[in-house]
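Batch job 17 of 40 flagged for manual review because the log was empty.
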Amino acid sequence: MSSRNTVSMLLAGSLLAACSSAESVITEFAQQRWDAMISGNVTQAYEYYTDAFKATTPLDVFKHKANGVGLWSKAQVKQVQCEASGKRCQVDVDVTVSMKMRGLSKPVDTNDVVHETWVKDGWFSDWRYVKQ
């Protein structure tokens, strides 16, 4: 095997490792963001949003607009798929909402899959959630 082929294989292996590593990191970050939202810690959840979002939505506005806090009861990251560029990933999260219904003694749970986008801006930057 030539040194050129060896280098190519090492680079391909590094890219695959980086993708699987990115998926692992994003799974953790997405779960942490959802756990913070469910617990009502919107300040912690806000840290996972992009700088562009933070520039247009200050924390106090975000706190006021945080929809679903108190209704979400569970969230579980189900799947992360990253683009070949390694800078953008799609995340599927199974979210459970507990709704109190008139005439029922217990809340009714309903589930839905939420599709999220996470991006990495620059080689050493952190992964950030893109609010859509």
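Reviewer: the log was empty due to a logging misconfiguration, but the result itself is present. The radius of gyration is 19 Å. Unflagging and moving on to job 18.
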